[in-house]
Design a protein that fits this description.
Elements: H1 2-28, E1 40-42, E2 50-60, E3 66-75, E4 80-81, E5 84-85, E6 89-97, E7 100-104, E8 110-112, E9 117-120, E10 126-131, E11 138-146, E12 154-155
Antiparallel strand pairs: 1-2, 2-3, 3-11, 4-10, 5-12, 6-9, 6-11, 7-8, 7-10
């Protein structure tokens, strides 16, 4: 019981630190140690209209082996992704530039601008994930705290 309470406390503190880092990055810009040139790029097929760069990733061995990833995404105008789920991840999004539309589970369709956030609990349906502009790109941070034993993303069947 004591170990579970400590794990939950560490998880909560880690989430607060990650949120603080995201706010700092958004307000003050990228610290030198987080610049994309030092990150490991994961580039989906060019036709998807999205560029994503992992800027930080670590395993939290003292919090049930969870993996924290901070990723910057740049989505071309008018593009989006299929409905999907992240079964083992708490997912936080923070819009840096542009306009992003998001719908999680049965919640409302939201149009977010710079400084606005969204949250997806594990296994929630990310029904809408798209650039809200037909002419301008959108840039946003995605912060995930994940269970590495579960799939990262599962696309919903149409």
């Amino acid at each position: 019981m004591k170990k579970a309470i400590i794990s939950h406390a560490v998880f909560g503190c880690t989430t607060a630190v990650v949120a603080t880092c995201a706010t700092y990055i958004a307000l003050a810009g990228w610290p030198q140690w987080l610049l994309p040139t030092q990150a490991h790029a994961q580039t989906p097929p060019a036709s998807s209209g999205v560029k994503q760069i992992d800027v930080f990733k670590t395993t939290m061995n003292d919090v049930m082996g969870r993996v924290v990833t901070i990723r910057r995404l740049e989505r071309d105008a008018g593009t989006g992704s299929d409905a999907h789920r992240h079964p083992g991840s708490h997912t936080f999004g923070y819009v840096l530039e542009g306009a992003y539309e998001v719908k999680v589970d049965d919640g409302p369709l939201r149009k977010l601008g710079p400084g606005e956030v969204f949250y997806e609990p594990p296994n929630a349906l990310h029904a809408v994930s798209r650039n809200a502009s037909a002419t301008q790109p959108v840039k946003y941070l995605v912060i995930q705290v994940s269970d590495p034993t579960k799939p990262a993303t599962v696309i919903e069947k149409k």
